[in-house]
Model the fold of this input.
Amino acid sequence: MDVNGKVVLLTGGSAGIGREIAHQLKAKGAGVVLTGRDPARLDAMRTEGFEVLAADLSNAAGVDALVAALGDRSIDILINNAGQLVDHDFRKGAPDADAADDGIYANLSAPIRLITALVPRLRDRPQAAIVNVTSGLAIAPAARQPVYCATKAGLRFYTLALREQLRDTSIRVIEALPPVVDTQMNAGNPMKKMSADECARQIVAAIERGRDEANIGMTRTLRIVESIAPSLARRITLRF
Done:
C-alpha cells in the first residue's frame, strides 16, 4: 500500500513506538490523526503539525468518545498501538485488580471496540488496513507480566480470525509483534532493547508491503524457536 495521501488513525501516537510511527507516516505523505492521554505530549505533537485527539481507551466510554470525535471522516488505516503495561506480580505483593481491569480493556477490548466501529468506513475505501500491535510476548509469556501477555495473546488470536473474516474485502489485517523496545514503558526492563525508531520503521514497511505479519527484531527468533519447540520458547520467556 502506498501510504501517501492515506488518512491514518493511530492510537497511542504521542510517545514511544506510536510517536515514531506518526513521524514516519507523515514523512511519507500520510495524514495522521493520533490519540493519547498526556496533554503535554499531545500539545507537542500538535505543534509538529499532527491532528491530535485526547482519548482514554481503558473503558468503553473513552472509545466511544473517540469515535464520536472522528465524526464521519474517512479512515484508510487504523493502527491499534496504544497499550498499558500492568504490574501484576504476586512475588512482589498483591496486584491491583483495578489496574488489571484497565489494562485488559486498553490492550484488548478497546482495539476490538474500535475495529467494530470503524470497519464499515474502512470497507468503503479502495485500499484499507487494520494494524494491531501485539508483542513477542503474545507468542510466549513472561512471568512478571501475565496480564499484558494475556491481552496481547488475545489480540493476536482476534487478529488472526479477523483477517480470515475480511479476506475478501479491501481491508488488509496486519499484526505487528515488537520485541522489547526502548520506550518509557520498558524503562525498568534490563533486557536489550530495540530503538523505537527502528521498530516503527519495520511496522510502516509491513503496511507498505502488504504483509500479514511483522515479526520484529528478536521476535523473529522467538517465532522460529516456538515453531520448533513451543515448550522451549516458553521456558526462555518465562524467566523474564
Observations:
- The first strand starts at residue 7 and ends at 10.
- The first helix runs from residue 16 to 27.
